Amino acid sequence: MLKIGIITGSTRQTRVGDQVAEWVKSLADQRTDASFEIVDIKEYNLPLYDELIPAAFTNDYQTPEAKPWSKKINELDGFVFVTPEYNRNITSALKNAIDYLSAEFHNKAAGIVSYGSAGGTTAANQLRLVLSVPQVATVSTQPALSIFTDFENMNKFTPGDFHQQTVQTMLDQVVSWSSALKTIRK
């Protein structure tokens, strides 16, 4: 069975992305075509990237925190990134986590669920560009959540019901692409 990681994109104390990730997982768990788990980048405590050799050229990481992060990403077949939009971009924590690895991401698929004042769409577009370097194929359907209408007081997640179908369509794409790309990785 395919293993899809739902990756949180923020490590802030006041983050709301963990609520969004739990919601996506609750919808994903209704499916039988893959298994889903939340992968919280905050739990990996990755320091600012400072490897001697870039990840594109090695997977012999010197940073101890990079080893469990590498192991987790390597065992997954695909991803759903839950990303906020900070200053029209993804968070530095998410960019840092992606920069630590390369081959572990190759030939895998990803969906993006974004949130922010304008649905986080600019951050999602930036994330697509970042993910293209380690050869992650991003699917086209992208749930975009408004911090004003899908959250109470910008801190309690209360998504509109119409988002559920968009998430399921995105998951359909992530599962089918992940399945197809798994054949390339063999």
Question: What topology emerges from the helices and strands here?
Answer:
Layout: E1 2-8, H1 17-28, E2 34-39, H2 66-75, E3 78-84, H3 92-99, E4 108-116, H4 121-132, E5 136-138, E6 144-146, E7 151-152, E8 156-157, H5 163-185
Parallel strand pairs: 1-2, 1-3, 3-4, 4-5, 4-6
Antiparallel strand pairs: 7-8
Family: Belongs to the azoreductase type 2 family.
Subunit structure: Homodimer.
Protein name: NAD(P)H-dependent oxidoreductase
Keywords:
alpha/beta, Rossmann fold, six-stranded parallel sheet, two-stranded antiparallel sheet, NAD(P)H-dep_reductase, FMN, oxidoreductase activity, NAD, Flavoprotein-like_sf
Give a quick summary of the entry.
This is NAD(P)H-dependent oxidoreductase. This protein is α/β, with parallel strands linked by helices.
Q: Can you give a write-up of this model?
A:
- The protein is α/β, with parallel strands linked by helices and 186 residues long.
- It has one domain (2-182): Rossmann fold (3-Layer(aba) Sandwich).
- It is 35% helix and 21% strand.
- It has helices spanning 17-28, 66-75, 92-99, 121-132, 163-185; strands spanning 2-8, 34-39, 78-84, 108-116, 136-138, 144-146, 151-152, 156-157.
- The longest helix is centred in the last third of the chain and has 23 residues, at 163-185.
- The protein starts with a strand and ends with a helix.
- The model has no long low-confidence stretch (mean pLDDT 96).
